[in-house]
Every structure is written in C-alpha cells, then in structure tokens.
Amino acid sequence: MPATRLLRSLTGLLLLSACGDLDAASAQGIAGNDLVAEMVAQLSTSATLTYTAAYHLAGGATATLTQAQKPLRQGYDHPGGRLVVAEDAVTDCSASACTLTTPPATGALPPALTTVQAAGMAPPPMVVQLLDAAALDQAVTIKSRDTTIAGHHATCLDLTGVDNAAARDFSACVTNDGVLGSFKGTIAGTATDMTMTEYDPAARYTAFTPPPGAVTRDRR
What we know:
Low-confidence stretches: 1-30
Number of domains: 1
Largest sheet: 12 strands, mixed
Radius of gyration: 17 Å
Strand order of the largest sheet: 7-8-9-10-11-1-2-3-4-5-6-12
CATH architecture: Clam
Mean pLDDT: 84
Number of helices: 4
Distance between the termini: 16 Å
CATH topology: outer membrane lipoprotein receptor (LolB), chain A
Helix content: 25-40%
Strand content: 35-45%
Shape: globular
Number of strands: 12
C-alpha cells in the first residue's frame, strides 16, 4: 500500500538526512534528531501489524483505525464516514455513498486522507511527515516523556516551533508495538486531539467494506 511504503521510505530518508546534518548540528540538535528518527522508525513498524485501534477524539467523538495484511490495507472509521486504503483501490465513503479511486503512485499519500484529517484524526503517514519536518529543523524544541495509553507503554515527543510543516507545535505518542497512541496539535488549521482507548491485535474486517446500503461509484 502506498501509505505504508511511504512510512518506510521516509524512515530511510530521515536517517540519511540526520546523518548529513551531524557536522553542523549542536549536541542538543543531534540528540533531538535521534529522538525523532527513533520515533519514525518505531511508528513505521506498525506497517507489519494486523490490529484494530479505537480512539477518542476532541469533542467526544470516536474513531477507529484497522489494519490487515495479505493484502495490506487500512480502514479509517471517522465521524464523517469511512476510508479504506488498499493496493487496488482507495474507497472513500460517507454514510450513503462510496467512491473508488486509483491508489496514488508509490511515495504519495492518497488525497482522501485529508478527509480523515479534517474529521479530527491524525493518520500515521501524516504524523510521519510532521516528524520528518521536525527532524530536519535544528531549531525545534523537543521534549521526551513516557506514559501508558490503553494499557500499553508509549514514548511521547512534545515538539515546538517546527518549520515547513502542516503543524508547528504538536505532541505524538507511539506504543512499544509501533502503533500511534496519541496525537495533539493543529494540522492545516484543524485542531486534532486523539488518544487510543482500545487496542486489539486482530482486524475487524467490516472496516474494509462499504457501509450497509451505501451506493458505490468506481472511478478508477
């Protein structure tokens, strides 16, 4: 799936970029880059998992991220509908209609992910982009902390003053399994505050099908 390949490719690019900046970076900057690179690598491991994660969103709404392998696919159930990203199609659904489009080229995010983000979720590929920008900014302020989310240990980074990113200030937590545990920040003008409330190491396969009664349009 393109989103997963993006996670992996950005991890490699991030590590190379961090190495190239070592000579010019201060000791604090190097440490910050290392922390962000570790989080990107940790979040990227989620691409190999099958799981269902439920999230509490700002304002009391809920959302679910489901992932399965063979074939690899992700399902986002959010307040505005459902998005399924798979190797053969991107399916964007409201309550009554779904539109199928061709997945983007390798290394590109499906445009429909912006619908998920606008509904108050922070899709992991977008979080990786934000972390990538933070790793390349030597002036960013980074604070690390540990916490427990839905019974799982998680490492968190609080980042302030990130340039050239869709969110200038944000916090992200990733569990030891590599799953996005929480995110708080304003992405492209949308306030986002999501925290995982439930984790199941199995996929709920209804997340990959259109809602009952929805009309499907295939525009591939």
